[in-house]
Amino acid sequence: MNAATIGLSAVVLTVGVSACGGEQSVGTHELPNVVASTDVWGSVAQAIVGDHAKVTSIVTGASADPHSFEASPADAAAITDASLVVYNGGGYDQWVDDVLRTHAGVASIDAYSLLDAAALGEPSPANEHVFYNLDTAKAVAADLARKLSQTDPGHAAEYAANAAAFSREADMVLQTETSIRTTYPGAAVVATEPVAHYLLIAAGVTDETPRGFTSAIEQDTDPAPVDLAAMLDLINTRQVTAVLINPQTATAVTKQVQSAAENAGIPIVNITETLPVGSDYLAWQRDSAIRLAAALKQN
């Protein structure tokens, strides 16, 4: 996968009109302005800020392709003007790192750095799609509450309460994920892209995708014929119970994989990197787990 895309939130506390919107004031103080590069982290931020800040997401909607996103000068300005930037990290949204590198004074939360890779037995570097790891999302929410409380102490108690509520709801979603482990032991899947890596770990589902296939996709290149053949063989011989497809990065190869799954009668689970219309982070994660379980149930 090309890692030059997505993942930032920024809390902006200014005196004039901010770089991302018009003036909003409560008494003599403007509301913090939270800017997210995708609606995923923007939704997490919204759950914490409540009515005490404005949240704006740059990349939105399940039809968007975060991998092809290129930051505009306005996007860069939103970062440099912020008092707090929250982003995915791990090279996933390298454009945020590039801006922060030349503006060291901007406070930031790097979600990838909050992943407990050792507890998960993750290799180094770990999979960068940390928004599918609920414990990491909880850590981001808690850090957001702490940092917002520093810039807006008047609402510190509400930020903390919102983060605690987010954590409780995330734990409920995690229970849905882990229930798959006991309900469908030994389940195996393949994926056109390792986006739902952490969902599969929580669910105890084995990812049988050939390493060469995954590596090529991560490098934004077509898999070698031998790796594609191995992928298709797993599907055609029904050695897996579901196929995970990211519809936001459709290519000739992913369409071939999808066609093979349809012909073999293997359930397809669409896994996105941004929120479906009308959804929020926790609902999106819950729905992804439910759809995975429903697909596994068919076999």
Provide structural commentary.
This protein is α/β, with parallel strands linked by helices and 299 residues long. The chain folds into two domains: 8-174, 3-Layer(aba) Sandwich (Rossmann fold); 177-297, Nitrogenase molybdenum iron protein domain (Rossmann fold, 3-Layer(aba) Sandwich). The protein is built from eleven helices and eleven strands. The strands form three sheets. A five-stranded mixed sheet has the order 5-4-1-6-7, with helices on both faces. It has a four-stranded parallel sheet with strand order 9-8-10-11, with helices on both faces. Helix 1 (39-49) crosses helix 5 (134-151) and helix 6 (156-183) packs parallel to helix 11 (281-297). Residues 1-28 have low confidence and may be disordered.
Topology:
Blueprint: E1 8-12, E2 25-26, E3 29-30, E4 33-38, H1 39-49, E5 54-59, H2 73-80, E6 84-87, H3 94-101, E7 107-110, H4 117-120, H5 134-151, H6 156-183, E8 188-191, H7 197-203, E9 206-207, H8 211-218, H9 225-236, E10 242-245, H10 252-264, E11 268-270, H11 281-297
Parallel strand pairs: 4-5, 6-7, 8-9, 8-10, 10-11
Antiparallel strand pairs: 1-4, 1-6, 2-3
Question: Can you tell me the CATH superfamily of the largest domain?
Answer: Nitrogenase molybdenum iron protein domain
Contiguous runs where pLDDT drops below 50 for at least 5 residues: 1-28
Oligomer, anyone? single chain
Main sheet characteristics: 5 strands, mixed
Average predicted local confidence, pLDDT: 87
